[in-house]
Specification:
Umud Fragment, subunit A; eight-stranded antiparallel sheet; about 250 residues; alpha+beta
Length: about 250
């Protein structure tokens, strides 16, 4: 998404709210009893309550997103429509991202939606592998958190005879999930990161096809959007499907 819908929504609420309160405190007092407001005033005024409800729901409760890339395969596929819990990581001021009511913090293993640090108008989704204070090491396509390797159990080789891809069941922070490793991609040189305060380190589940914290660094807390928890529709083309509807971890 190349624009921030939150900015558009807040702007619309401010615009329609101006007409709503002008009518409430000024124009309505200068109309005859029972006289309806003029159409140029009634139209934005009527939209204001609806937009406020949408803003509250979207900003503080649940927001839908579409998965545009394959960086979270096999957990999330291109065309998946997901639901994101906006209050799991605290209530935040729309647009600014400032936490106003603390509720919780991202945990290792969470699927987190956040604003891309290099372009905050774009939403990214990755898995949290490191929280503040953690030492993260990536070596031989294995994540080490504070010196402990994430458990990986081989589930499948594709194709079976001459495998090019391996699917592992990985456990991070007590969360089991599948990851995909592409065998013809070279193994990266071992690297180590220390996660600073109020930042997070994230990976894609498609380990060899994901631009994540290995390339552009840490996610600041103020860019956190919420925790993905369910797929509610899958639509890679023009026809929606509900066969993939499920909770995700």
């Amino acid at each position: 998404m190349d624009f921030d819908f939150a900015i558009v929504l807040v702007s619309l609420v401010a615009f329609t709210g101006l007409f709503y309160f002008l009518d409430l405190f000024y124009f309505s007092r200068h109309r005859s009893e029972g006289e309806p407001p003029p159409q140029w005033l009634e139209f934005p005024k009527s939209f204001f309550p609806v937009l406020v409800i949408v803003l509250v729901l979207r900003s503080f409760l649940i927001e839908p997103f579409k998965i545009p890339t394959g960086s979270m395969i096999p957990t999330l596929l291109v065309g998946d429509y997901i639901l994101v819990n906006k209050y799991a990581y605290g209530l935040r001021v729309p647009i600014l991202g400032t936490e106003i009511i603390p509720i919780g913090k991202p945990k290792t293993g969470d699927i987190m939606v956040f604003k891309y640090p290099e372009n905050p108008s774009i939403n990214y989704i990755k898995r949290v592998v490191g929280v503040p204070g953690d030492e993260i090491r990536y070596e031989n396509k294995t994540i080490y958190v504070n010196g402990v390797a994430a458990s990986q159990i081989l589930e499948a080789q594709l194709p079976p005879s001459q495998p090019q891809i391996k699917i592992y069941n990985e456990t991070l922070g007590g969360v089991e999930h599948d990851i995909m490793v592409t065998l013809d991609r070279p193994t990266e040189a071992p690297r180590t990161w220390i996660v600073p305060e109020d930042h997070y380190f994230v990976f894609g589940d498609n380990r060899d096809n994901s631009r994540d914290s290995r390339f552009w660094g840490f996610v600041p807390d103020q860019l956190v959007v919420g925790r993905a928890f369910a797929i509610w529709m899958h639509m890679p083309g023009w026809v929606p499907s509900f066969e993939r509807n499920k909770f995700v971890e």
